[in-house]
Design a protein that fits this description.
alpha+beta; four-stranded antiparallel beta sheet
Length: about 350
């Protein structure tokens, strides 16, 4: 097969994978034993590249893990465990994945003073975010009525059961679930003795080892401008990555207009319960896990530029690449010092 350079688009994460060599889905990379598996999951796409020393075709365990995850944590699957918990099914008991995601989310929520919140499902539904319906910008009265049953401190796990302060409270792990599922996939590869892999689920990335060329994996970050709808077509920068998770969050693709022409972004500020408004266009976070990168990238899109800088300064284990709008209409870049080594020359 002819060796080609290509970019694989990432639908949700505002990032694109840049791989030195590759091939079609389900086959080995030219001149190597690397395999690729592509498909759809969690309302988005996934792309996985791995190098198994035993030459195994791992599509079946990959698909089984993603199916199990959907049955556990999807808010779009009415029979999932999470949907049953949200509906107050008395027979529903949180599984290990939901418990772990709640623990990770709680740590990020506490650390960001509530900028990250998994109890915003009622707001997301009321704003009609993620649906084909015209978004509805809520009135102050509507917001106040929903505020009563939102807030991450109003839910907990107690004696293995989910305890809510109000039965109307509903959880939504979409701001962390895809990153967490990528981590689970990476853990599965680790258990199988696969040392070289890249997992991308909905734009959330975890990778380890080396790419087909023997170097670090390369991840392209899309330029956060309206109209840049094809991932990988207009890149802001390319970063090298290995043994870390990476997630980009931004509002320049995922927004719509309500019935009055007002812009409604998909990032809800848990404090105001309104779509977040500031000059931060996208936040790329690199962390020890994709779940942490996912949660903190979302929090940055609530905190804005200065709040994100303050957050990153407190966490040397995190690396950040922030793109923001300037008064003259141009874009500015802020990168943490520990990220500069990753920018591809």
């Amino acid at each position: 097969m002819q060796r080609t350079k290509f970019i694989l688009g990432v639908v949700v994460g505002a990032a694109a994978l840049w791989l030195g060599t590759g091939c079609g889905a389900g086959g080995p990379a030219a001149g190597s034993s690397y395999m690729t598996v592509d498909g759809f999951t969690q309302g988005s796409t996934y792309h996985i590249v791995y190098n198994d020393p035993q030459g195994r075709d791992l599509r079946t365990p990959i698909e089984e893990l993603l199916e199990d995850f959907d049955n556990s944590m999807s808010v779009y699957n009415p029979s999932s465990l999470l949907s049953r918990l949200n509906d107050n099914d008395p027979t529903a008991v949180p599984d290990r994945w939901i418990v772990e995601c709640m623990e990770i989310a709680r740590r990020i929520s506490d650390d960001t003073q509530g900028a990250f919140d998994i109890t915003l499902r009622p707001l997301i539904s009321a704003y009609r975010i993620g649906t084909d319906d015209v978004p509805h910008l809520l009135s102050p009265r509507e917001i106040d009525s929903i505020r009563v049953f939102t807030g991450y401190r109003k839910v907990r796990i107690e004696n293995g059961r989910l305890v809510k302060s109000d039965p109307r409270l509903a959880l939504d792990f979409n701001a962390i679930a895809q990153g967490y599922s990528a981590d689970l996939m990476g853990a599965m590869f680790d258990s199988l003795g696969v040392a070289d892999y890249l997992v991308e689920i909905g734009g959330e990335i975890i990778c380890k080892g080396r790419n087909p060329n023997g170097g670090e994996w390369r991840v392209g970050i899309d330029r956060p401008v309206e109209g840049n709808l094809v991932p990988g077509e207009d890149l802001q920068t390319i970063l090298t990555l290995s043994d870390r998770g990476l997630v980009t969050s931004g509002n320049y693709r995922k927004f719509a207009f309500d019935e009055n022409g007002n812009k409604v972004t998909h990032t809800i500020d848990p404090h105001t319960l309104r779509p977040a408004v500031h000059n931060l266009l996208s936040a790329t976070i690199i962390a020890p896990t994709a779940a942490l990168a996912d949660g903190y990238a979302t929090a940055c899109m609530v905190l804005g530029l200065e709040g994100s800088k303050t957050l990153l300064a407190r966490h040397p284990e995190l690396e950040g690449y922030l793109v923001f709008g300037q008064p003259d209409g141009s874009m500015g870049i802020y990168a943490t010092p520990n990220l500069s080594k990753r920018i591809a020359k």
